[in-house]
Structures are given as C-alpha cells and as structure tokens.
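worker-3 :: picked Peptidase M14
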Amino acid sequence: MDTLEIKQLFNKHKEISLFHRYITNKHIDDLIKNLDNSVIVETIGTSVLGKSIYGLKIGSGEKRILMWSQMHGNESTTTKAIFDLLNTFKEEEQLSSVLKVCTLYIIPILNPDGAEAYTRINANEIDLNRDAQNLSQPESNCLKAVFTRFKPHYCYNLHGQRTIFGVGNTGKSATVSFLAPAQDQACTITDNRKVAMEIISEMNTALQEIIPGQVGVYDDAFNINCVGDTFQSENIPTILFEAGHYNADYGREFTRELIYISYVKSLLYIANTEVTGTYYKDYLKIPENKKCFYDIIIRNAKFNNELLDIAIQYQEVLIGKKIEFKPKIEKIEKLSQFFGHKEIDANKAVVYTENGELVEKGYENVFVIINNEKTSLIPK
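worker-3 :: tokens ->
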C-alpha cells in the first residue's frame, strides 16, 4: 500500500470527536464502549486517583505487538492516531492481512491522571518513563503486567515531543522522531535493535515523501530506568515514536496524520515481512534531533546600542478543558545557532511591552510593540 493510499484512509477514518491536544479518559470512554466485538476491551488496572486504564486487544495472528500511549499525560497525538487506526481496521478489508498475521494489544492512555491534569507526570509526580526498574507506581505495574502476560514480539512506545527539537543543523523542525533504544551501556547495535531500526527505516521512507528532511532520531544514550531501554534489554524490539511540531500545527493534527501513516506502514511491514534486521543501515542515516528551536524569534531588536534576538517559547496551559499557548520570553541574546518556528524582524527597532517598557526575560503577554504597532505572539 503506497503512502497516498494511506493518506486517503486517514482522511476517511479520522476520529473527528478527538482533536487538538487535550485528550483524557472522558474523551475516549464512549469510543471504547462503541468498539465492535472484534476488539476485546479490558480494564487492566487503575491509576493513582482510581481512573481506569484500558487495554484493547485486536487481531488473531501470531505476531504480537504491544502499543502504549500517553505514558506522559500531555502527549496525546499518538492517542488520537490510535483511534483513527481502530476506525480503519473496523471498515477496511485491505488491512485485514495485519489482523490475520498480528495481534495488537493497545493501551490508549497509560497515565489518565496526567492526561486529565495535562502534565507529563502522574498524580504522585513520578515520570512513568523513569520508573521501569523501581515499578513504584500502579501505572508502571500495569504496563509491566501486560508486557509479561502478552509476551510481545514488538513494542511501540508512543510519545510526543516539544517544539524545541530540530533535525540536526538543517533548520527544519523534527516533526516526527524515532528511536531504537539502546539495550546496554555501550549502545551496541544488537540484532534486536537492528530489527527495530529496519522497521523505523520503512516508516522514514514513507514520511520523507511528505515531510522531506523533517524526521529525526533521538540520542540513544542508555538509561535502564526508561521503559523502552528496559524492554529492549529484554530482547524485544522496541520503537520509540515521537510526535513533534509541523509549521503552525499547534493542535498536532497534521502530525497526527503522519503518526497514523507510520502505524499503518510499520504494521503492514511487520505483517508481510520476516523482519530480520538485515536492512537496518538506512536508520543510521537519519539525523539526530537537536534542541535548536524556539516558537518565535524576534531578530535584530535594539537594546541600547546592540542588536540582539528575542527567543519566545509557548507555555502550554490548561484553561477550561482547553490547551492555550502563552508566550514567554526565554532569552535575549545573539541566537544565530537557533531557529524560530516563526521569525519576526524588528529591523533595529526597540521592542516594548504593552506598557511601553523595554521587554525583558520572563515577560509574558500575547503581544509586543514594534515601531508603535502591536505584534501578536499567539499561534493562529
């Protein structure tokens, strides 16, 4: 199935009840209740605050794939794409090969307390992706229990990344990123990792047709406390998915489509191929992510007799069950090594606050004044 066909499937089966960044159990409860009998629904545990953690099992094949999303509660793009995928399985015979050859076990929201509060951490203020060894949290034990019982052949660790990441020094945003996590301190390219790398290479080939130069990989420094590294170290090929930023897509709806394409491409590849890791080397050509972006950079602003750049980063704030983006000045200095998703040329003018004062680090407001005109800082 080519990439254009998969894009058409996405447009046909996108779950329209899920949108933007705030996705919680309340948003998916009805969707889960309305799943047909091809999906086995389980409550596999509860969160710190007693919210249900769901497991969805679909397919009858021998190749077992475990997928979990929203381990970090504020990373919801991959969850939206999961329900787009489930809609597709429900209605499209052309993907029946996946479900005949594979069995998928999907945890759509592992951290429902974090999802509701829109935080990375759980209700005990623990990062679940650093709890793989201690297993101190009910959500961590939930995932581990499923891993032990389901015995997956592949794991999909589904996340979202901040707007700060670019692809190397290219000046392009890292819209989707992957990682075949290390399984030892030496970051050895083991046979197990090669399998994950080969699958990532297949997804990257498809994405390059749509977002050329905007796919990155994470640093593979080993941390046994991370879930991906732990599962990889247990010789289960594990793939980290990171849904990132595309130009002006702060709701992550276009990125959602790219993640969906990645799901379908990788699942078809696993279903139709004996993945041995032989074709892993293209993975090594994918540039590494770099922290080199701000949401906005105002260039050439006058401070005394010096021209400096102003870096603005959005703070994601939950207000009334909706995520709003609040601009905050993070740096005022020469930023020649950084890029802005939006860049404004002050053209040697002084940049003022709404009160007519010189802007300074930490300033938060939806606009600044340049040449006596208000300039909006909020995303459209």
